[in-house]
Amino acid sequence: MMNAAELALWACGLFFLTGLLTGIWKYWQIAQSEKSRAHYYVDVAHRASLMYAFACLVLERFAALSVWSNAVNTVAVLASVVFFGLAVGSYILHGYMQDTRNQLQSPHKLGSVHVPGASMVLFMVLLIVAEVGGFLVLFAGFLWR
Questions:
Q1: Short-list 57, 77, 59, CA closest to 13
Q2: d(CA 43, CA 81)
């Protein structure tokens, strides 16, 4: 079974690779654009993927130094990493569909489908709880040391 620190490193590698690949996509869109710009969410996906790669290194260090069990640390890492991935996935989707420049602006849409505002609020609350809560568990495990 993979430990929490290794899981964070796997996630780091996958986010970094995603950042590199979305960077190619971004460059291609810039080269094709009359205004030399990529779609807003292609740019966001590129930058967020790189940022989350380094955030995963932070999670890795705190997981490695935490006094909690591997199971607790793994759940904490997964909570953050899953929502990092969902965020990047939504950016990639919006960049591909070119359907919005602000996914949090009402009315919420995904392509031609309208997304209920309550589901966006619920997703954002879950994201906050998972990402902040996951890190707080790891940070507490480090501090308890």
A1: 57
A2: 20
Is the CA virtual torsion 140, 143, 144, 145 positive or negative? positive
Domain ranges of the chain: 4-144
Per-position DSSP letters for the chain, written without gaps between them = ---HHHHHHHHHHHHHHHHHHHHHHHHHHHHH-TTS---HHHHHHHHHHHHHHHHHHHHHHHHHH--S-HHHHHHHHHHHHHHHHHHHHHHHHHHHHT--S-TTSSSEEETTEEEPHHHHHHHHHHHHHHHHHHHHHHHHHHHH-
Q: How many CB atoms lie within 10 A of CB 124?
A: 12
C-beta separation of 3 from 70 below 8 A: yes
Compute the distance between CA of residue 110 and CA of residue 45 in angstroms, rounded to an integer: 16
Q: Among candidates 83, 10, 99, which has minimal Cα distance to 48?
A: 83
* pLDDT tens-place string over residues 88-142: 999 999 999 998 888 888 888 888 888 888 899 999 999 999 999 999 999 999 9
